[in-house]
Each structure stands twice: as structure tokens, then as C-alpha cells.
Amino acid sequence: MADDKNITIELQSLIDVQENPFVLIDANYQIVAANQAYSMAYGLTPEQSVGRLCHEVSHHSDVPCHKNGEHCPHQQVFATGQPCQAVHVHFDQMNRPERVRLKGYPIRSADGTLYLGETVFPLDCSEGVDCEEMRMIGRSPAFLNCVDNLTSAAESEASVLLYGESGVGKELAAQYVHKRSSRNGKAFLAVDCAAITESLFESELFGHERGAFTGCIGRKQGLFELADRGTLFLDEIGEVPLAMQAKLLRVLETGEFRRVGGRELLKADVRIVSATNRNLLEMVDMGRFRLDLYYRISGIDINLPPLRERQSDIPALAETILSRNVGAGMRYRLTAEAITLLQAYSYPGNIRELRNILLKAAALSANGIIGPEHILLKEFNVVPKDKLLTDAVSYTREGEASPSMTQVEAQYIADLLVQHNGHRRTVADILGISERTLYRKLNLYQLS
């Protein structure tokens, strides 16, 4: 319904035939026309929508979204006259948040008046996709941009390579891509490439026949066979042994493979989503990763933001973690001081570390109220591997010769093990390496 002399019956008719929510907004953020889908999405009639401010309807905010730090299509269209896209969090008629992709277009009336035409595409309400259950939670610009990239990747059949630090939720992101893709309903299988020994890697991926090796008593289907027509998530792809990379490349190029010890040529239609916290191109330069395999798996590159870049999401993440990971019968609430403390921390272990901190805090709280005294943060300096040599002086006593690189690394790892009570996963996360690589270093330096 329109309420502006410049909005013709013909233009209103074009608005009404839009299947997605569509709204026409003037330079003062006022809605001058809306279709039925837009009004229903926000619990209004078309007549009630017209005359309202757009940010009041969709954001439940008294100020335009750009004043809250969001990328504003209204601001860009009226400033440049060019179309634009953005991902926002809107609130439906039940005041529930949902992520939406906005596409804004400049539209002029017969007398030349400029309007913003805005189409709303929900990102969270697709059938079969429950993002809340997957803990894909957040409203920060960095996170919303990431969700938009994941949604676009899901619409393609290209391989996806996820970059991100340990603990940012790479498997959840891979599941999001799978569930929004045409392969939803088929198998989604995940494998941690760092957790498989080199001798068993081929058998794990391609399966084996009975008697293929010592102790093999039966046939086993591999992950490629089991994931046929679905998605295979290869976590820590940088840990794939160099000898296996050629075989992995072949199956990705042809879809063909043989079980270990078998002669039958098998085929599988599998979409690959990979993840790493390494710089694969640097590994290529060092001769530790094949360039042709890199190009095969990196059809679409997506960076997952670390938690320190989305601190505004911490309260919502914390609330969700506490509601789903504590015992029944007790509801937990964070005080404002506790939230402030959580938002000030850098989280080298990202969401995984936030979860551990909150579960410890819940165990320490007797009445369900979590204050700053219950938040136990381990303050330590994260020293990247490539800076260990630079920091060698910190391990050198006065009058002693500077230690070698291996001595510095061994001492640094030993200190971390003591500081974190021997928890190898935590130490590996801090070092930015896999647990398997850490085990090798422990054996090399004879550390326990």
C-alpha cells in the first residue's frame, strides 16, 4: 500500500508482485510503499507499514542502522545512486532476531524523486536449516559478512576453503554450507586430517578390502564412498601427508578411486569443504603442500573471524552456551561486570575457549548468578611460531650464549605445558599447530 503522490498505481503493482518482502523508502527513512510479504514479516498490514520509519519497523531502533555501526543500504543508495547489498539482523513480529540479506536499488518516480527500493532475503529461515541449533550466533559486522559469504558459497557447487584460527567454529560453518546447499539431506561427513596417522590415511578416505594389510579382517567403506552425493569436510587440510596429496588430488579431479587392496574402480560425487589455520601458499613455497591441490580445494576462500574481532557477539554467545551446556534445573545469568570482563579478553582459543571459561564459571556459581569473580581467565602472551627466534633473549640468562631456535622452541613449549597443566590441545591452539604436530615436537624435544 502506498501513501505518496509520486508513487503511481503501476509502481505499486510492481511492488506487490515481488515474492520476497519489498519496501520503498524515501530520503527521510520513511516507508512510502510496501508489499504484503514485507508487512506480514513484521506483523503489520501494508497500511500500518506506510509512514513508519524503516529502522523502527525492521530493527526496532530509534536511529538508522548506520548509527549503530551497520552498513546501511539507505545511506549508500542516496549518497551514490548505486545498488548495494548488506547483511543485517532484523526483528520479526515476535521480536525474534533473524539474519537477512538486503539488496537496495535506486528507484526514481516519474518526477525524478529518488527512493530506496529494498528487497529482504531471509538467511535463517530456509527449510532444514536451524542456525540456532548450530550456534551460528552473532550480529557483528564481521560475523554477518562471514554468514553472507557462506550463504553465497552454499549456492555454488565449488569447493570451499575455510580459513580461521582454532576454535572459531569451522565445522559449524561447513555444516551451514552443506545444509543450505542442494546436497542438504545427503551425508555430511567430517574428518580431522591431523588425527589420522599417515599409514591409515588412504584407508580412511578410500576404504579397504579384506586382507589389504596386516590385521585387516573385513571390507571397509571409505569416507568418499560414504559421502557420495553429499559433503565431505576435511578439517586441518594442511596436515594431509604429502604422499597422500597426489591421491587426494586425483579423486577430486576425477571422482574415481579404489579401496586399498582392491581392483574395482569406484566413483563418488562429493563436494569438498576444507579448513585450515595454516597459510597453505607458504606451505607450497616450502614444498609441504601441492599447488595443484591448493587450487582444487580453494574454489571459494572464506575467512572466519576470530572472536576478538566480534566482541559485540560475546553476550549472545555466552547466553546460548550457558543455556545449552549446563545441568538441568539451573538457569545462569551473567552480571554486567562479568560481561565486561569477557568482552575485554582476547580469546586465543576463540569460541572453544569461551565455552570452557563459562562452564567453569557455572560450576563455581552457587546461585546461578555469574560475576567477575567466577570468570577465570588465563593471562598469557601468545607468541607466534615465526617469532620464537626473535624472543630467544627471554630464555637467555645473563652471561650465557643465545640458545638455538630448537632450544627456544623446546623451552617455550615446556613452559606452556606447565602453564596449562599439560593440556596438549590448548598448547597446540596457542602455537597455531595441530595436536599431531605437537606430539612430534614433544617426542623430538623429549618433553612429557
Features:
single chain, 5-stranded antiparallel sheet, Rossmann fold, alpha/beta, nucleotide-binding, 16 strands, Helicase, Ruva Protein, domain 3, 448 residues, 5-stranded parallel sheet, 36% helix, Beta-Lactamase
Summarize the structure.
With 448 residues, the protein is α/β, with parallel strands linked by helices. 36% of the residues lie in helices and 16% in strands. It has 18 helices and 16 strands.
CATH architecture of the largest domain: 3-Layer(aba) Sandwich
Helical content band: 25-40%
CATH class of the largest domain: Alpha Beta
Which shape, going by the Cα principal axes? globular
Largest sheet: 5 strands, antiparallel
CATH topology of the largest domain: Rossmann fold
- Please report the distance between the alpha carbons of the first and last residues: 72 Å
Contiguous uncertain segments of 5+ residues? 125-134, 380-402
Helix segment count?
18
Strand arrangement across the biggest beta sheet: 2-1-5-4-3
Rg estimate, integer Å: 26 Å
Number of strands: 16
